[in-house]
Amino acid sequence: MSSPALEIKDLHAGYGDAKILRGVTLSLPPRSLVALVGANGAGKTTLLRTISGLLKKSGGAIALGGETIDGLPPHRVVEAGFVQSPEGKQLFHGMSILENLMVGAHTERARARRKETLEEVFELFPILAERQHKPASALSGGQQQMVAVGRALMALPRVLALDEPSLGLAPIMVDRLFEAISKIRERDLAILVIEQNVFQVLEMADYGYVLENGKVSMQGSGQELLANDHLRETYLGL
Amino acid sequence: MDFFILSFAVTNGLLLGGIYGGVALGLSLIFGVLRVVNFAHGSFLMLSLYISFWLWSIFGLDPYLSALINIPAMFMLGFAVQALIISPLIKRESALVVEPLSALLLTAGIFLVLDNAALMAFGPDVRAVQTSYYMPSLMLGGIPVNSQRLIGAVAAVIVAAALSWWLRTSHLGRSIRATAQNRDAAAMSGINVPFVYAVTFGIGCGILGLFGALMSTFIPISPSIGLSFGIKSFIVVVLGGLGSIPGCIIGGIVIGVFEAVASQFVTATSAAIGSLALFVLILIFRPAGIMGRA
Question: Which of A179, B149, B198, B211 is most buried, with most CB under 10 Å away?
């Protein structure tokens, strides 16, 4: 039995007096794609920020491949193998696409392989290769999202988290992005996807969690969740 | 006003302005990356002037050679000040942007401590380095040029160019730029942000180490020398465009030339007031500074 790629147990965190996460427990098996859905303010982004070490937890445990990573500073979390493509893309706007991707390959492990990884990212998103010397700010929303995902891949994650990758994208770009995500699945990593696009992400996910008020309110395989009445009503409007 | 005196004043202003720009580089870099206005910038220059002075007066070390000790010493001091004093403040503000006021007050406190510690340790006397050799003025196109100031101004341009180039091409330089542009995204890419901050602060102070050594040859040194340079650096940085390295040199030259030329017509004090008026005037038309992007 290998340990889960990412395991979170009873995680509590928040900003000052505002408790956002109230005991989140979830687990990503190796090489799985797990979806995390929930309304705005449910705590999805806060969960990722806490795993990344940008926010201090107030209780619980986070383990990556069986090793505890809670309490580590953000750069050590990346070294351990958890990398996220953050909400709102958070690109380095004064830099070219190529430079944005290169910043992603910062850890020693990632730097050693950065040429190969760059090729792979360009293969995944050919448009980035074409426009690699353009400043990140000159790209469309969809292309910026590709840079954000590409930058996270450059760090050679063991667990890749994508925070709202389809937010604000045109439907055609959303489809392309999901295609790219299914290609990323072929790599040796586990993926955690936060999405508003509940239907599309649950269709492809191995497993899904629903976050409500800082707690997991429901979980199950993608198909199970899609068949659930409460979820259909709340998130799909069916 | 005859042409010779005017061109002499312009030349002098160019040199002095270049040096102002060089002194301001560290302030600009630190602000650009940490978003901290370092009120103690001038005090660090004062310390580095004293380092060169004491190395000369105790060990007889040539002020230019003292740069070899001054630069690493100031780098380490800057690194330590950031890592030990300013970093806890930034950490306390967690993921949010540093409150400019609290950082300003903290560095103002560092300024008070350093200036008064220097006053206590070295006394209020004005000191000067006397090199054993005489550096004659050069004649460039019929205009006498002070060689110590020429060295300072040339060094400023070289340091500015080297710094820009290093930030653009090196691995650490890219990490510094990434951190400046988006601290959280940099951290999530694996960059050790507190380390980058400390190195940046160290570089900012290390540059002062160089200029302390170069300026010790022609500046009277006293514990209160820092403040006027600190304020001038601030004006230069805002005028040139916050965080812009070429802007720093250009801003320095604008102020230097204006002061030198204006002081041919009015007293030096009035010229300094005039340079502040020029500062306000330029900012009305270019609020982000000469090289700044709004």
Answer: B211
Could you tell me which chain A residue has the CA closest to the CA of B293?
Answer: A94
Count CA within 13 A, CB hemisphere, residue A83.
26
- The residue segments making up the domain with residue B15 are 3-124+144-285
**Span B59-111, pLDDT tens digits:** 999 999 999 999 999 999 999 999 999 988 887 765 455 566 788 899 999 99
Cβ partners under 8 Å of residue A207, min gap 6: A29, A32, A34, A35, A219, A220, A221, A222
Test B189 with A91 for CB contact under 8 angstroms: no
Contact of B170 with chain A, judged by CB distance below 8 Å, is answered with no
- The reply to whether residue A74 touches residue B175, judged by beta carbons under 8 angstroms, is no
What is the pTM assigned to this prediction?
Answer: 0.92
Task: Look at residue A186 and tell me if it is in a domain.
Answer: yes
| Chain-chain contact of B182 with A107 (C-beta, under 8 angstroms) | no
**Amino acid found at A233:** E
The predicted-structure confidence for B140-169, as pLDDT tens digits, reads as follows 888 889 999 999 999 999 999 999 999 999
> Does the beta-carbon distance from A55 to B194 stay under 8 Å?
no
Residue A212's CATH number: 3.40.50.300
Q: Kindly state the tokens that stand for B226.
A: 């820092």
Nearest CA to CA, how far is B94 from chain A (Å)?
7
Q: How many structural domains comprise chain A?
A: 1
